[in-house]
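Sanity check

After download, print the first record. It should look like this:
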Amino acid sequence: MTTNPAGNEGSVPIRTEHDVVTSRQLVRKLTQQLSFSLVDQTKMITAASELSRNTLIYGGGGDMQWQLHREGIRAGLTLSFVDQGPGIPDLDLAMKDGWTSGGGLGKGLSGSKRLVNEFELVSTVGKGTRVTITRWK
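Expected structure tokens:
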């Protein structure tokens, strides 16, 4: 895990199942640090778990980058899941509930989007994928 000197951003590798657990634990710690409600903590941890698993399974591994935001009384957490995997050929199809390129339930991307305030998906076939999510308190 890397963290900048100010402690407001960093990254963790996602290369193994253990790293998925580590990313979830870090998101729990960060949301608690920002005093998110238990419901908001759970939403962000759930989204992070889904996206970490996607990064590992479909992207072949990558990194979770995180950044804390404090804007007056407003606080937020941004997470980016980045891989250099095969990419997603049809983003519209990938965002449909029930669609999966593997053996999952097809709820990972679309479900994660519903759990956060901001969601961005960028993917290039043959180069990889970046999913960025933000939840505000």
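If your output differs, re-run the checksum step. Summary of this record's structure: The CA atoms of residues 21 and 39 lie 19 Å apart.
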